[in-house]
Design a protein that fits this description.
The complex is a heterodimer of chains A (481) and B (451). With 481 residues, chain A is α/β, with parallel strands linked by helices. Helices cover 38% and strands 10% of the residues of chain A. In chain A, strands 1, 4, 5, 6, 7 and 13 form a six-stranded parallel sheet that branches. The chains are: A alpha/beta (481), B alpha/beta (451).
C-alpha cells in the first residue's frame, strides 16, 4: 500500500500536507456539530443520540430531597391534578424556550412525584371516573403532553418506564399521519400506546393552528370563523375535524379517545370572532368527548373533581420548576399539602437553603423564578385571584359561572354558598391526615382569603393564562399547545 | 520510527471510531428519512437507496483481497497506444521495460497513432535504448482503438496488457495482473491506478482520492461479486488474448447513433467481454496515471467518460440481470442513480427556494456530507499523505456540476470528439502501406514469445 508511483514530492511539502490532513480530521466534525445545534432536526438527532448513548434516568434523591418530598406530599382524594407539559429537551432560544424543560428536570419531577406517593392517572382514567367509572386513586396526578411531539416522548418514555408511571399525550392526528421531525408518526405513537405508558387522546386533527380569521386577526382555527364562513359551516368544519381525529386515534390504538385538549387552550371564550362559537364548540366537543382540558388562569387552578364543568377542566402548565416547587404547586392546587404563611410571596418563595433544592446550581434557581415561582402580589392594580390558598379554590365552587360569560354554558357548579355541599373529598373537609408540616402554617381560609378574592370574571378574562399571554401572540401560537 | 508507527496506529483508531460514529448518525436519521417517505417519496427513497448502496459497497470492499502470486507466468504483450505524448512517452516505455517479468515471456509494443508532435522521435530514442522494444508507427491518425487493435494484431502474448501513454507501471504490476487469469472464466483484469501528478494542485489531489475509492471500493466490490467489473480502465488493464480476438473487429469499428464510437474504448471492450467472462480487479497490480490539472480539461474528461458510460449502460442493462444478482442490483442502481441525482439536487435546493422546509435542505446537505466523509475517511485510513479531505471536494464538485453531466451527455451524445485532444473521429482500416514497424532486434527473444 505504501508504494507510491507518484512523482516525488519534497519531504517538507509532504509533511506539511500530512499535518494539514491531520488537522482536517477534527475540523470535519464541524458540519455535524452545526447541524446538531443550529437546526431543529439536527438537535433532535443529537437528542436521540444522547438518549441512545446515555438514557435519561431518575435521579437518586438525597435524604433531604426525600424528606422534602414527604413534607410536601399532597394528600387528597376524589379528584386529580392535571399537569400540562410541552417539550422536553435542550431548550432553544425560540419562543417555546420557557416551556421546554430539560430531561434532567423532568426526571427530577418524576422522582419527586414518586417519592411523594403520587399516583399517576391518564386523561382516560379521569374521564371515566368523572362519568360514573371507577374512582380515581388518592393523590391522583395526570401528567399530560400536547401535540405528539417526538422530543417529549423521546425523553419522557424511558423516565416514565423507570418511574412506573403513565402519561397522556394529546395528539394532533393530522401531524401524526404526516410525521416530521417535530411530530411522531403513527408507528411510533402506536408503539408508545402499546407500552401501556401512554394514553393517546385528541388534540384535533388539523385545527391546531392559527388562521387569518374574519375580521383580519390571526386567531386559533378552532375558535374563529374564516372570512365568509357561516356558523353552520364552522360547525361542519369542526365536526369533521374532530371526527377525523377520533377515528384516527381509534383506528391506530383500538381505543376511541374520550378526552380532548383545546389547541392553545382556546375554547371560544376569547380569541374568537363570534360569541356563538363557544357554545357550538362546546356542543361538538361534548358530543364526542367526556372531558376536555384548557389552561386558563394558572394562578387559580383547582383540583379537578366531577363537580366541575367536564368540558373546561384546567391543567397546570409546568415550567422549569424544581421537584419541590412542583410538589408545592400540586399541593396548593389540591388544597392539601403545606400552605405557607399568609405572606403573599412565601408560598413559592425560593429558599436557597431549601433541602429540596440541594444539588441545583444557583443559575437554575434564577431561571426558575420568573416562570415557576412567579410571585403574585395581591392588591396591585392587576389584582389577579390570589394563588395563596389552594384551599380556597378547592373549597368553594370550582368555578364561578362568570368564567363562561360568552357561552353561557350550563356550568355544573354549586352556588357560592355551597361550600358545604361538595363531597367530603374537597380539601377543607378533607379527611386525609393533615400533613405534619402544614397545620401550623395553615391559616383558616376565611381569615385570609376573602379580602383578596375578587370575582374572577371581573379582572381576569378567561382565555390565555397570565403566563401564557405573556409570551406574546407568536409564541402563544407555537408554545402552549 | 516506532513512534511514528504508534502515531499512525492512533490516527487509524481515531478514524475507525469516527467512521462508526458517522454510521451511528446515519442510523439515527433513518426514521427521519422513513418519516418523509409518504410526503416526499422520490427524495426519501433515493436517500435510502443511496445510503444502502454506498454502505453495501463499503462492506464488500472491506473483504476484498488481491489474488496472490501463484507463480503463473503466461506470455504477456504490453501494448502502449500513443498520440501526441512527446513529454511522457519515454517514462511510460521505461516503466514498461523495467517491469519484473521473466525475460522472453513478455514484449512491449508501442503504437504511434499519427502523432503531430515529436512522439515518434521519442519512441525512436527509446528503441535505440531498448532494442527489444517493438515500435510501430501507423503513418496517420486512426484513433485510439485503431492503434490498440493494430497492437493486438501484431502481438503474440497470451495476455494483452494495455497501458495508456500517460501511465506508468509498477515493477511488479505485470506479475500481479496476470494472476487472476489462472481462473479460465476470467477474461479481463484491471489493475489499480494512482494519480501520478497528485501533488500538483487540489484538482489532482482530489482525483487521487477519487481514484482510490473508485478502484478500491467500486471495482473491488464488483470484482468480488463474481467478477463483474464494468470498466477495465485503460490506464492499466489486461485481457485474455483468446477472448479478445473474436470481439476485435466489432469493437474496433463500433458505431453509436450512426457515428463512430471513438472514446470509451476500455468500457466498450470490457462490456463485450463481460457478457461471457469475468472481469476482475487486482489491487496489487499498480499503475500511476496523469490526470487533468485544470478544471476545464477535467470536466471534458468527465463528460467523455459519462458519454461512454451512457452508451455502454444501454448494453449493460440488457444482460446484467443474468449475472450475480447482487452485482446486478448494484449495477442497475448505479445506472439509475445518475439519472435521478440531478432531480434530487434540484428538488432539495429548489424546494427550499420555493419556500419548503429548511430542514429538507439541511438534511440533504448533511447526509451528503456524511457519505462524502465516509468515502474520504476510507482513504485516510490507508494513506498518510494528508489528501483525504479532498474526497469531499470531489463530492461537492460532483453534486454541483458532475451530476448534471448525465443529461448534458445525452444531449451532446453525437459529439464524439475527445475534448482533451484533437483526434480523428472517422473509422478506417489500418493502411499497412503507411505503417512503419520496427520489430525487436533480438530475434531469440521474439522466438521465445512466439513459442
Amino acid at each position: 500500500m505504501s508504494l507510491r508511483l507518484a512523482a516525488p514530492v519534497s519531504a517538507r511539502r509532504g509533511l506539511r500536507q500530512t499535518i494539514v490532513g491531520l488537522f482536517a480530521l477534527p475540523l470535519s466534525v464541524l458540519p455535524f456539530v452545526a447541524y446538531g445545534t443550529l437546526t431543529p432536526e439536527g438537535r433532535l438527532v443529537r437528542d436521540r443520540a444522547v438518549v441512545r448513548i446515555s438514557p435519561p434516568s431518575l435521579p437518586k434523591l438525597s435524604a433531604d430531597q426525600k424528606a422534602a418530598a414527604r413534607a410536601r406530599a399532597p394528600r387528597f382524594s376524589g379528584g386529580a391534578v392535571a399537569l400540562a407539559y410541552h417539550g422536553i429537551g435542550s431548550a432553544s432560544a425560540d419562543g417555546e424556550g420557557q416551556f421546554v424543560i430539560s430531561p434532567r428536570r423532568f426526571a427530577e419531577h418524576l422522582a419527586m412525584l414518586r417519592a411523594a406517593g403520587v399516583n399517576t392517572v391518564t386523561a382516560g382514567d379521569v374521564a371515566r371516573s368523572f362519568t360514573g367509572g371507577p374512582p380515581l386513586p388518592a393523590n391522583a396526578v395526570m401528567i399530560s403532553f400536547d401535540d405528539g411531539r417526538t422530543d417529549a416522548m423521546l425523553y419522557a418514555d424511558p423516565l416514565l418506564k423507570q418511574a412506573r408511571m403513565a402519561a397522556t399525550m394529546f395528539v394532533i392526528t393530522a401531524a401524526a399521519s404526516d410525521p416530521s421531525v417535530y411530530y411522531a408518526g403513527w408507528d411510533s405513537l402506536e408503539a408508545y400506546a402499546r407500552s401501556g405508558r401512554w394514553d393517546l387522546q385528541s388534540h384535533t386533527s388539523e385545527l391546531h393552528r392559527e388562521q387569518k380569521a374574519a375580521g383580519g386577526k390571526q386567531l386559533p382555527a378552532l375558535t374563529s370563523l374564516k372570512p365568509g364562513e357561516s356558523l353552520p359551516e364552522f360547525r361542519a368544519r369542526v365536526s369533521a375535524d374532530l371526527d377525523a381525529a377520533s377515528s384516527a386515534i381509534e383506528s391506530h390504538t383500538g381505543r376511541a379517545p374520550v378526552a380532548f385538549a383545546y389547541p392553545f387552550g382556546a375554547y371560544g371564550a376569547e380569541r374568537t370572532n363570534d360569541p356563538a362559537i363557544g357554545q357550538i364548540l362546546r356542543e361538538e366537543v361534548g358530543r364526542r368527548y367526556r372531558v376536555a382540558f384548557e389552561q386558563d388562569d394558572q394562578e387559580s387552578i383547582p383540583l379537578l373533581t366531577p363537580q366541575q364543568d367536564p368540558l373546561l377542566l384546567r391543567r397546570l402548565e409546568v415550567g422549569r420548576w424544581s421537584g419541590a416547587q412542583l410538589l408545592e404547586r400540586i399541593a396548593r392546587v389540591s388544597g392539601s399539602g403545606p400552605v405557607a404563611t399568609p405572606g403573599p410571596d412565601d408560598d413559592i418563595e425560593i429558599r436557597p437553603d431549601d433541602p429540596a433544592l440541594a444539588g441545583l446550581d444557583p443559575t437554575d434557581l434564577a431561571d426558575d423564578v420568573p416562570t415557576g415561582g412567579r410571585p403574585i402580589i395581591p392588591g396591585v392594580s392587576d389584582s389577579k385571584p390570589v394563588p395563596v390558598a389552594g384551599l380556597r379554590i378547592a373549597s368553594a365552587t370550582p368555578r364561578g359561572p362568570a368564567f363562561d360569560p360568552t357561552t353561557g354554558a350550563p356550568v355544573p357548579t354549586s352556588p357560592p354558598s355551597g361550600g358545604a355541599t361538595p363531597p367530603a373529598t374537597t380539601p377543607p373537609t378533607n379527611t386525609t391526615p393533615p400533613n405534619p408540616t402544614s397545620p401550623p402554617t395553615t391559616p383558616p381560609p376565611s381569615a385570609t382569603v376573602p379580602p383578596t378574592t375578587p370575582p374572577p370574571s371581573a379582572t381576569v378574562p378567561p382565555g390565555c393564562s397570565a403566563s401564557y399571554r405573556g409570551k406574546g401572540p407568536k409564541k402563544c401560537n407555537g408554545g402552549a399547545g | 520510527m516506532s513512534a511514528r508507527r504508534i502515531l499512525a496506529g492512533v490516527v487509524k483508531a481515531v478514524i475507525a471510531v469516527y467512521a462508526v460514529a458517522i454510521l451511528g448518525f446515519v442510523w439515527l436519521t433513518k426514521d427521519l428519512t422513513f418519516a418523509t417517505l409518504s410526503r416526499d417519496p422520490l427524495f426519501a427513497s433515493y436517500s435510502i437507496a443511496v445510503v444502502i448502496y454506498v454502505l453495501g459497497r463499503f462492506v464488500f470492499a472491506l473483504f476484498y483481497r488481491s489474488n496472490p502470486d501463484t507463480g503463473y507466468r503466461p506470455t504477456v504483450s504490453i501494448i502502449v497506444p500513443a498520440f501526441n505524448e512527446e513529454d511522457g512517452i519515454i517514462g511510460t516505455i521505461e516503466s514498461c521495460m523495467a517491469v519484473d517479468y521473466p525475460a522472453g515471456r513478455f514484449e512491449v509494443i508501442v503504437v504511434n497513432d499519427g502523432s503531430t508532435d515529436r512522439t515518434w522521435a521519442r519512441i525512436l530514442e527509446a528503441k535505440a535504448r531498448w532494442p527489444e522494444l517493438y515500435a510501430v508507427d501507423l503513418g496517420r491518425n486512426y484513433g485510439k482503438r485503431g492503434a490498440m487493435a493494430e497492437g493486438i494484431r501484431r502481438s503474440t502474448g497470451e495476455v494483452l496488457c494495455f497501458v495508456d501513454s500517460d501511465s506508468y507501471l509498477a515493477k511488479d504490476a505485470v506479475v500481479a495482473i496476470v494472476q487472476p487469469f489462472v481462473d479460465q472464466r476470467v477474461g479481463a483484469v484491471v489493475g489499480h491506478a494512482d494519480v501520478r501528478n497528485d501533488s500538483v494542485n487540489w484538482m489532482t489531489k482530489m482525483q487521487q482520492v477519487r481514484y482510490y475509492s473508485a478502484f478500491r471500493v467500486i471495482k473491488g466490490t464488483e470484482s468480488m461479486l463474481s467478477g463483474t467489473v464494468t470498466c477495465a480502465s485503460g490506464c492499466c488493464a489486461a485481457y485474455r488474448r483468446s477472448v479478445v480476438l473474436p470481439l476485435l473487429a466489432d469493437w474496433e469499428f463500433q458505431t453509436f447513433l450512426g457515428r463512430p464510437a471513438t472514446f470509451g474504448d476500455d468500457r466498450a471492450l470490457t462490456n463485450r467481454i463481460l457478457k461471457r467472462h469475468r472481469v476482475v480487479y487486482q489491487a496489487s497490480a499498480r499503475a500511476a496515471t496523469i490526470v487533468p490539472e485544470r478544471p476545464r480539461v477535467f470536466f471534458r474528461q468527465q463528460l467523455r467518460w459519462k458519454k461512454s458510460w451512457l452508451r455502454e449502460s444501454m448494453e449493460v442493462v440488457r444482460y446484467f440481470w443474468r449475472k450475480n444478482p447482487l452485482a446486478a442490483l448494484f449495477t442497475y442502481a448505479s445506472i439509475a442513480f445518475p439519472f435521478l441525482a440531478p432531480w434530487v439536487v434540484l428538488h432539495a435546493v429548489g424546494g427550499r427556494l420555493l419556500g419548503g422546509e429548511p430542514g429538507g435542505l439541511w438534511f440533504y446537505i448533511v447526509g451528503t456530507y456524511a457519505m462524502a466523509l465516509l468515502y474520504s475517511l476510507y482513504y485516510a485510513f490507508t494513506h498518510r499523505d494528508g489528501y483525504w479531505f479532498h474526497g469531499m471536494t470531489f463530492v461537492a464538485l460532483y453534486m454541483a456540476v458532475l451530476v448534471f453531466q448525465t443529461y448534458w451527455g445525452i444531449l451532446t451524445m453525437r459529439d464524439t470528439r475527445w475534448g482533451t485532444r484533437a483526434s480523428t473521429v472517422e473509422h478506417a482500416a489500418i493502411d499497412q502501406d503507411l505503417v512503419t514497424a520496427l520489430r525487436p532486434a533480438a530475434e531469440p527473444d521474439r522466438g521465445a514469445v512466439a513459442a
